[in-house]
Amino acid sequence: xxxxxxxxxxxxxxxxxxxxxxxxxxxxxxxxxxxxxxxxxxxxxxxxxxxxxxxxxxxxxxxxxxxxxxxxxxxxxxxxxxxxxxxxxxxxxxxxxxxxxxxxxxxxxxxxxxxxxxxxxxxxxxxxxxxxxxxxxxxxxxxxxxxxxxxxxxxxxxxxxxxxxxxxxxxxxxxxxxxxxxxxxxxxxxxxxxxxxxxxxxxxxxxxxxxxxxxxxxxxxxxxxxxxxxxxxxxxxxxxxxxxxxxxxxxxxxxxxxxxxxxxxxxxxxx
Amino acid sequence: xxxxxxxxxxxxxxxxxxxxxxxxxxxxxxxxxxxxxxxxxxxxxxxxxxxxxxxxxxxxxxxxxxxxxxxxxxxxxxxxxxxxxxxxxxxxxxxxxxxxxxxxxxxxxxxxxxxxxxxxxxxxxxxxxxxxxxxxxxxxxxxxxxxxxxxxxxxxxxxxxxxxxxxxxxxxxxxxxxxxxxxxxxxxxxxxxxxxxxxxxxxxxxxxxxxxxxxxxxxxxxxxxx
Lengths: 271, 226
What we know:
The complex is a heterodimer. By secondary structure, chain A is mainly alpha-helical. Chain A has one domain: Cytochrome Bc1 Complex, Chain C (Up-down Bundle), CATH 1.20.810.10. Chain A has 11 helices and 2 strands, in the order H-H-H-H-H-H-H-H-H-E-E-H-H. Chain A has a two-stranded antiparallel sheet with strand order 1-2. Chain B folds into 2 domains: 53 residues, no CATH class; 123 residues, Rieske Iron-sulfur Protein, CATH 2.102.10.10. Helix content of chain B is 24%, strand content 20%. Chain B starts with 14 loop residues before the first helix and ends with a strand. The chains are: A mainly alpha, B alpha+beta. At the A-B interface, helix 9 of A face loops of B.
């Protein structure tokens, strides 16, 4: 009769569609929590998302102060991602053999769209060496290597070495004169490996009776080069080390490194 | 349970009885005693072992106990892993090497004029030098120099106009004899073994090297008298 029935104003179509989507089983199975608008939800969202859980739920103000961190660790990681991606693209064209290596490098510039791709990989590599050093410098100057972060400092030192080894192995792949002789000079250092290099201290001790166990064709340098000189074996070994082995190791250590930063109390603050 | 520092209790006495002789709270002490008795069979302390308690039924295998078996299993696993690691290391050292042979003949002496010959530099990494009067042997004949700079291992170039070997990497210079005279190279070029093959050809053997600074250039096989 006189009863008036209030009719809710209908929500706009877009809102209704959004509501319908966010209530489907697909959506709710992926996004378990509502928007991170309060502390509790922020924690829930961060901890239940594989991508977000790499970030801390909250961090110290100094942790985002550029003048304190220089963001060098973050930039190094970003460059690693850039190098992984551009390197992956280069692998579609590059063949690590004496016959093709150099011409494929030239081809990457001349015959492939975006001929700058190889240069991006190269510049990125140079930049990463620089940023990793600066990151080490910043960590050292802020005393962030001190307990409880001493373990992570050591992980970082290993990753610095791996960064330099990635740089070194990548240097051979263009297979030009610069590359060959740089690796010749560099790998000659392995001759002097104690006990395991055929010109190193104590190699004479590595013998079984009259049989000399360490000589030019089975010492540390040989293991590196796959031969007694920088040839096809060295090119292939450096390629595999550069593209697979070293990135796997450094990727694993990065996971440990980032995890450790969190567990040791986040990015260290100013004293 | 902190039973290490104490003397081993008699086999039939619950450890708690000794740990708490006064037993101010009988109920708690009894509970602790029961708990200790339950744990006793599993403890690894020498005290408990020396107490002479019989192992549970499951450990009474005629061949070996549970611990022994676990030890054997872990030992076998460790040995197998070490073996796999060693095999992986060995995998990196091939049995056949596709590199130029260390020994090779280079033709007859009359094929060569006086001076430095570059024809084997690219393929074999040696210079053949014929001389009227050798540096150490004071005779005419042949010697072969490794084309490897003694500074850091680059390949020098033979500059005939300047009568010297010149390394492009860091500028080391060597006389035709192999003696260094400029740049960072710390010692002369090395000589290979050089002898006559059975058919009269000159045989170069790179598996032996002769170093001047060690007095090895006086060796008979470092120089081929003609």
